């Protein structure tokens, strides 16, 4: 019995039979799905209550305490409705589209870490291309909307689908560039190593007292009490100031801002909810969907919100780490009084997910506040903002981060850690100031020229029109 | 097992892509095909290649394809209006020739000696040098300079690909940069072609400008 327990839960991956590995994978998947899709009803409830609060009304408050059971009632209502398939739709694709919209969202759950455990940190904890995988999955998310819009055989749906996909494609660029800047800072592609700053899959057993870190945390190897049981501890000297959004100030912060704007656009939410603009397109690409198929789109949208927030937290806000190092785990002394296994369990399955979900819900609250505060953008403004605003800024930011890092790498041997940091940042700040100065000067010159033109034209004529000579057919011009 | 599954489905989706008359269906089958090929890359431990395949082909290029098809609203074409009557027999002939070429190459590269079933039993013969070694293979393995960055540990990983692409000592840095400049030229060209004339410009000036750049 104890043997089985050890094989299923305790031993490292290379010492267990294949069926235990399968069992572990299933358990990890169940945890991820419960956390991801289980949050959807909570999100729906939170959004409706918060929106009510922002708009000075009550929101759903009849079903259950504080209206908590309202999402359940909604889901029941949706499932009871008749599932209509209109006559002239492309049947196969019409039926497949909601599933296609939902499945990449669930796929991206697999690489998001929810604690620092080597075996139980994520569904696929040791995958070393986590971020690339997320980008790949994000790039196929478009298909759900585009196929739903096309197969519905409805002009509004098609327009909604086209809008959704062009918007997602446009904003994916800025998003990808801001992700790349984080990858440059951290130097790794794995999500878990991004959070903790070292590669879990390659580290062997380290002596207690060793300090590790290049990511969002400084991690120290500690032994629990006198037991000789080693754990990785988020060092007390580390905290939110080590997270990526404050690295290479202000470039990390700019990347964070770009990511957060594009994640709102990516999930097609207000103020970027053009694909579902009720006043123009009925309901966008899911106009023709009813019953459970509509529920799947709905679920996909909210789960997607959760996922992009989780990616944001993982990349920029320290994942499951606490804002202060000592809050990330029970103090090591606890190991003297309870079994090390219990300490480890509490650290990994209570404290780490607590911080992850706290950050997630703060971000989602921000999402909802943005929805309540901003009016919807016009379509050309949206595209202009994406291509002429976000993309150049993201690109410039990336180049500056690369410059800073390159200077730091070159000057590191002679100047040391802090000297190299100031050298690299100094160069990057200098370039930023020069470029911004040139841009402002250009704008200023343009403004002055415009003012001069306006002044002169006011004297001559109130409106400057090109002079057009129109020959009148009735009276032919006299011959010269 | 997995190879058979995904290789088979890659074949099936490829064939159905060609056979389906509806262009949207064809494009979707091409997407499926690309996924199957990505899984094949995964089975070869080329994780980076697999994800890039999904990002670039399935995520970007095929979405553009679908976009164009939907914007043009292409339906199922009428077979009787097909002007390229000779196309199908020609395609079949070329396919046969291509299959023969592939067959010849595969036949040549399989080591002479015991047949495949026997090799499964005696594993060492699989790697034993045959009487007449393939010069290309032995060259690659005997010359360590060519394979400096690509060791079995790093092959297919991001590190390995990055080292072989960006290492100035490797032969791939120049072609890589040349390709990027080529793509930049294509982007600039498409911008020039798609640029709308400004309202102030008259036709002759615009024509001069286009003539100058083209």
Describe, in plain words, how this protein is organized in 3D.
The complex is a heterodimer of chains A (480) and B (214). Chain A is mostly helical and 480 residues long. Chain A has one domain. Chain A is 62% helix and 3% strand. Chain A contains 15 helices and 3 strands. Chain A has a 3-stranded antiparallel beta sheet with strand order 1-2-3. In chain A, a hairpin with a 4-residue loop joins β2 (219-224) and β3 (229-234). Chain A is globular and about 110 Å long. With 214 residues, chain B is mainly α. Chain B has 2 domains: 1-76, Four Helix Bundle (Hemerythrin (Met), subunit A), CATH 1.20.120.1200; 127-213, no CATH class. In chain B, 69% of the residues lie in helices and 0% in strands. Chain B contains 10 helices and no strands. Chain B has helices at 2-19, 23-43, 47-72, 87-109, 116-121, 124-127, 135-142, 158-166, 173-194, 203-213. Chain B is extended, with a radius of gyration of 24 Å. In chain B, 13% of the residues are buried. The interface between A and B is medium-sized, with 24 and 19 residues.
Q: Which of globular, elongated, flat, extended, rod-shaped describes the shape of chain A?
A: globular
Radius of gyration of chain B: 24 Å
Number of domains of chain B: 2
Write the element-wise H/E pattern of chain B from the N-terminal end onward: HHHHHHHHHH
Q: Low-confidence parts of chain A lasting 5 or more residues at pLDDT below 50? A: none
Strand content of chain B: under 5%
Our count of domains of chain A comes out at: 1
